[in-house]
Write a structure and sequence with these properties.
Layout (H helix, E strand, L loop, with lengths): L2 H18 L11 E4 L8 E5 L15 H11 L4 E7 L4 H12 L5 E10 L1 H5 L5 E5 L3 E4 L10 H26 L3 H8 L7 E4 H7 L4 E3 L7 H14 L3 H9 L40 H22 L1
Parallel strand pairs: 2-3, 3-4, 4-5, 4-6, 5-8
Antiparallel strand pairs: 1-2, 6-7
Length: about 300
């Protein structure tokens, strides 16, 4: 963390402290998930898929205290943060930014769909920021509602200006230009602020790279990945069947494996391993995919029978 970032965090500390005093949900709120790291060197995954806030207008949202508890559960080490949030409470957003910026480990933030308002500066806590090409990012001035006399309104305006200036500093520290430039971007269209696509956010310096499917990704790896995802959705008994019956690659299935074209509900008839003589079809991609499909189908049938 550089000196400029430390200065920004120090300026935001009162807001972060205020948010962290709020009562958390106890149970993890919808939209906040933590996937533990599979090994000491691997990254844990924190998903922030919802409104930010643990009080006021956003009391059903994801509070800073909820994120603090999730990070404590993960422990030190690398964290991947996945964002899809319309934003919400600015103080909770500031506190979450602070928690991530101070996390003892590399933080990589991924914008999966939307990082708007408070989520747009939570995103900037990452050491590395990756956006989906078609994701959207929105920045705007702080906003609030207020009731009271001139002194109350004046104090509220002063606080809003201070918060917006500090947030503009976060954008400037990441993307360059100065805070005045980013304040202009934040207020360009009134409360609507400025919207960025993944590409325009990359051009503006708010993100470091875009996600993309490699052109040279092997086709059988793609399909195998989809089949694996399908298998993961099966009941436990079905997955156990599949594990106990690994796909063989040294035989050829019957030629008649195509479903009846006139019946969309028909199932392909694929020979089982014991029905065929041994052959070397290690490189037969189509064969391996058919057999993976056969095993999943058999596992599904086994699950139904067990039920």
């Amino acid at each position: 963390m550089n000196k400029k970032h430390r200065t920004i965090l120090a300026a935001l500390a009162p807001a972060a402290d205020e948010a962290l005093k709020r009562q958390g949900h106890g149970e993890r709120p919808p939209g906040l998930m933590m996937h533990a790291r599979p090994s000491a060197s691997a990254a844990a995954e924190l998903m922030i898929y919802g409104v930010i806030g643990g009080g006021g207008w956003f009391e059903e949202g994801i509070a800073a205290t909820d994120v603090a508890a999730a990070l404590a559960e993960a422990g030190p080490g690398p964290i991947n943060v996945r964002l899809n949030s319309p934003g919400g409470d600015v103080f909770d957003g500031i506190a979450i930014h602070t928690l991530l910026a101070r996390h003892p480990g590399t933080v990589t933030c991924y914008v999966d769909g939307l990082a708007a308002s408070a989520a747009s500066f939570i995103m900037l806590a990452g050491d590395r920021i990756v956006s989906a090409r078609n994701a959207m990012i929105m920045i705007h001035d702080g906003m609030t509602g207020v009731y009271g006399g001139p002194a109350t309104i004046a104090r509220t305006l002063e606080l809003l200006t201070l918060v917006s200036d500090n947030i503009a500093d976060i954008y400037a520290e990441k993307a360059g230009e100065d805070a005045d430039y980013w304040r202009a971007q934040m207020s360009q269209n009134g409360e609507d602020g400025t919207w960025f696509t993944g590409q325009s956010a990359l051009d503006a310096g708010l993100v470091d790279e875009l996600t993309a499917v490699p052109d040279d990704l092997d086709e059988d790896m793609r399909v195998a990945g989809r089949l694996t995802a399908w298998a993961d959705r099966l009941p436990v008994s079905a997955r156990e069947f599949i594990s106990a019956h690994p796909v063989e690659t040294d035989y050829e299935p019957d030629d008649d494996v195509t479903p009846d074209a006139g019946n969309v509900n028909s199932e392909p008839e694929i020979s089982t391993p014991d029905d065929e003589p041994a052959h070397d079809f290690t490189d037969d991609y189509e064969h391996r995919m058919r057999m993976a499909h056969w095993l999943i189908t058999q596992g599904h049938t086994a699950s139904k029978e067990a039920a």
